[in-house]
């Protein structure tokens, strides 16, 4: 597990210091981020300011109640600016790509960014001298590790533990439900992206969610931590029993169009009308983060409604929003329908 790896790296870091004549007590405490980079934990960690162009950082900042420290952020919908104090007043230093000039003007104490963009990490640290805390969030261990790292770095250790415990409890519950489903009842599925030939790679969070929900992910062989254009014919050959469409990006198609398209008529998911957009319109239950628990429960209900009912799903939706935001939200406002 990545948490264990991080702990080991920290231990090795301290051992190296001791070997050079410095004891761990003489050094600043450190964490190892998602890119394997060691960071000293700032002395003013309870007040350090944040910027990010990586939309995936938003639910983590929210879960750890750090919204009031954000100077610039990339939010994907008005839901976050409405729901989180600090986001509405925050500026922007880019959307996905960092605007170095804007970042220099805001001069945050740290930039939160994705682990696989080494060019940006080097540019920000070398040219601006701003630390970059890298995060990787493609499975449960990643999510827990990111919460733990950010909790340590920003002085939110207790809240990070609360979120990790909540999330662990939800996936333990999901595991218990899935354990009751006989193997012969397991169905196949994939998650489709913004185009009808674009799918979540086998090692993306969305594909992991299918497996956690008891499904058999048919794109396991497509190992790419990104959306992959495999072509419509390849989607037909995979012939999933269920298609879940992401809500984390705009779709260049509709469920109704796919169901009515004669070219798709031989696919099992079309025949059985098992194509669903993962909720919601202005929030996203398949964006990497804490809401992945909801997305997984949604898949579980749709694939196995006899084992996880609509009433259970509705109750879990309310529980999630109460835990994350201290209140529930009207489903019309969020833009989803859980009716059968």
Folded structure, characterized:
The strands form four sheets. The chain has a four-stranded parallel sheet. Strands 9-7-11-12 form a four-stranded parallel sheet. The chain has a two-stranded antiparallel ribbon with strand order 1-2. α7 runs parallel beside α12 and α12 runs antiparallel to α13. The protein folds into two domains: 119 residues, Rossmann fold (3-Layer(aba) Sandwich), CATH 3.40.50; 153 residues, 3-Layer(aba) Sandwich (Rossmann fold). The N terminus is likely disordered. The protein has 340 residues and is of the alpha/beta class.
What kind of sheet is the major sheet?
4 strands, parallel
> What is the helix fraction of residues, given as a range?
40-55%
Q: Write the element-wise H/E pattern from the N-terminal end onward.
A: HEEEHEHHEHEHHEEHEEHEHHEHHH
Estimate the strand proportion: 5-15%
List the helices and strands and how they pair.
Blueprint: H1 2-19, E1 30-32, E2 38-40, E3 50-52, H2 57-63, E4 70-72, H3 78-83, H4 100-106, E5 110-114, H5 118-128, E6 132-135, H6 140-153, H7 157-178, E7 188-192, E8 198-200, H8 205-212, E9 216-217, E10 227-229, H9 232-238, E11 242-245, H10 255-260, H11 268-271, E12 275-277, H12 292-303, H13 310-325, H14 331-334
Helix pairs in contact: 6-7, 7-12, 8-12, 12-13
Summary, kept brief:
With 340 residues, the chain is an alpha/beta fold.
Main features:
single chain, 340 residues, alpha/beta, Rossmann fold, 2 domains, four-stranded parallel β-sheet, 12 strands, globular, disordered N terminus
